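Whiteboard transcription, Tuesday session. T.W. wrote the structure tokens on the left side:
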């Protein structure tokens, strides 16, 4: 478990370093996650220890959102002043996600029917 946590936190650290050095507005953990995904694709999947540790973290995922929710409340004034663009972005991203999900589901169902 210690090795797997070191791998996960190492990729997050690499993402943070890239973000800070490049000055990108993308969160470091997102870049770290993309790099980890690339490495796992090249290795053809995670090892047993990384898989077990990741599943353990995913089972407690709701606890990981508490600090993020607290952080949002620190910016309540900004949320109040910029609620309209935020609401528009949330609505647009939700509709886009629903559309992309529907297209993917349609393609996967059609591909599944062709196999049968």
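and on the right, the sequence the group agreed on:
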């Amino acid at each position: 478990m210690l090795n797997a946590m070191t791998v996960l936190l190492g990729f997050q650290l690499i993402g943070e370093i890239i973000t800070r050095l490049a000055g990108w507005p993308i969160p470091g953990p997102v870049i770290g996650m993309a790099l980890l995904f690339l490495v796992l694709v090249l290795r053809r999947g995670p090892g047993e220890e990384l898989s077990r540790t990741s599943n353990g973290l995913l089972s407690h995922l709701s606890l990981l959102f508490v600090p993020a929710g607290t952080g949002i409340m620190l910016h309540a004034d900004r949320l109040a002043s910029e609620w309209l663009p935020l609401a528009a972005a949330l609505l647009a991203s939700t509709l886009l996600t629903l559309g992309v999900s529907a297209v993917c589901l349609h393609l996967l169902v059609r591909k599944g029917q062709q196999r049968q």
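Someone added at the bottom: Residues 32 and 88 are 28 Å apart (CA to CA).
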